[in-house]
Amino acid sequence: MHIAEGFLPPLHAAAWGVASAPFVVHGVRALTREVKANPESTLLLGASGAFTFVLSALKIPSVTGSCSHPTGTGLGAILFRPPIMAVLGTITLLFQALLLAHGGLTTLGANVFSMAIAGPWAGYGVYRLLRKSGAPLMVTVFFGAFFADLVTYCVTSVQLALAFPDPASGFLGSLEKFAGIFALTQIPLAISEGLLTVLVMRLLMQSSKSDLVRLGVAKLTGGTQAKQEAAL
Q1: Which residues, at least 6 apart from 82, have a Cβ–Cβ distance to it below 8 Å?
Q2: Pair 116, 109: CB distance under 8 Å
Q3: What is the chain's mean pLDDT, rounded?
Q4: Which stretch of DSSP H or E encloses residue 156?
Q5: Exposure of 165 in the CB half-sphere (CA atoms within 13 A)
Q6: What's the rounded Cα separation, in Å, for the pair 124 and 137?
Q7: In 3D, which of 201, 206, 103 has the Cα closest to residue 159?
Q8: Residue closest to 120 by CA, chosen among 49, 209, 38
Q9: In terms of Cα–Cα distance, which of 73, 55, 158 is closest to 123?
Q10: pLDDT at residue 28 in the model
Q11: Which one of 29, 46, 60, 97 has the largest count of C-beta atoms within 10 Å of its C-beta?
Q12: Hey, what's the torsion of the CAs at 55, 43, 145, 193, to 10 degrees?
């Protein structure tokens, strides 16, 4: 979903940068509070950022000026909420633009808005809605990651359609073309990312259950609670 360097018109690039800035600033404050209040979160924060970096670097050529790939943002959004994911996603996109020529500096704002803001908020919203409905944790994790990926591609399609409307059918015609081309690769990728995120969450349930309980993702079982109380 990364839009390539210099591909967007300057006005569009600047507008998406302005739109993304408040979310990133708010995210920096949220991240600072989280690290100060819970220093033990640092390792899990780093793992969430690394997960996003690795998955979103696996690019598949798609629409001219962009590409398809997993995003990895659903996991961080579920664990630490979307504001913090906005920061982790921005850092990921910045390093990829500088080190991998994946995305770009002029299109950073647009890429941040789609992958680090819109996707995480959508995925987290679906996750919370399913949790409130009583769905099993791993089902909510799958759909949270799935929609975080899918909505990212939808927003990128809108961004490209706004920048390059079809001469005959305008914005809607261009949106249909961009979204249709992305869908060929992105829907299977979103399903795969959902399954992979479930696998990672299962591993975290085994290795970092206490952290997940503190973050409100998991709940203490009777046996686990009794062991903790005995240790105290």
Answers
A1: 117, 120, 121, 124
A2: no
A3: 89
A4: helix 137-163
A5: 8
A6: 13
A7: 103
A8: 49
A9: 73
A10: 97
A11: 97
A12: 30
3-state secondary structure 4-40: CCCCCCHHHHHHHHHHHHHHHHHHHHHHHHHHHHCHH
Residue 65: band (very low, low, confident or very high) from pLDDT cuts 50, 70, 90: low
CA atoms of 90 and 158, how far apart (whole Å): 20
Count Cβ atoms below 10 Å from residue 211 Cβ, excluding itself.
Answer: 17
Residue 106 in tokens: 């002029």
CA distances to 97, 125, 191 from 2, in Å: 9, 23, 19
**Three-class SS of residue 3?**
coil
Question: Shortest CA distance to 98 belongs to which of 5, 207, 173, 24?
Answer: 5
How many Cβ atoms sit within 10 Å of the Cβ of residue 110? 31
Residue with tokens 């919203």: 125
> Which residue in this structure is represented by tokens 């979160």?
41
